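Hey L., structure's done. Input below.
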Amino acid sequence: MKRFFAFTASIFILLTCTIITFAGDFAKREIHGFSVDGGIFAFEEYGVQDGSGFPYSNIFVIDTATDQWTAGSPFRARLEDETRTVLDAREEARILAGSVMKSFENRGNVVATNRTTELGIDSKRMIANPRLVVPPIDDAVEFRLEEISFAGSARCQVFGSTQGFRLLQIGTQDGDTTRQLHEDTSIPESRNCPLRYDLADLVTYFPEGQSPIFAVLIRMQTVGFEGPDGRFLAVTGKLD
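Output:
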């Protein structure tokens, strides 16, 4: 009997170690919001890097009119010291971003969210009322995500086809009106061999006297050291 329990315990430890060995790291995110005029949007991803165990934080600041990073963005901090914490990395990233962080006060509202752990959802489709008004006074907004296969760089080809994406806004009144918001024609090196994309968050902001603005956060799975890693990117624009 003792041998049986010893054998069972050994199997349990082996399986546990196997699970840990092949676990990538999925970043958490914080949405910092929009500037008062809605001209810029910021969010942060942070966590502990798989393999190295180093804490990191990346702050992205985006011009909502052009859907491009602003000068200096992203502000990346990776502390190559396992004794340092994620809070340390986040503080370092804020120091790198400097005064730009004063522009944000969490303006805007997260009106839809898909979690990585949530089951039974279509992670490529998101539909929501654009602000919390009951009963609604706005038309609902809908976004759909489509993946596009690319050969990828020589470094990525060992993992097979890498993925780009196309983001669409769908007319909710007739279902036929489609506005293309983004379409990859190549894979940026900064994405590090992307394997999959899912819609993560829809954030909206209604600046006074201006057209409402949106930011769609997309969760991207990339090739990591111990398994797929989860990172974020965003597409911004005006709600038409």
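The two ends are 70 Å apart (CA to CA). The CA atoms of residues 16 and 207 lie 50 Å apart.

-- N.
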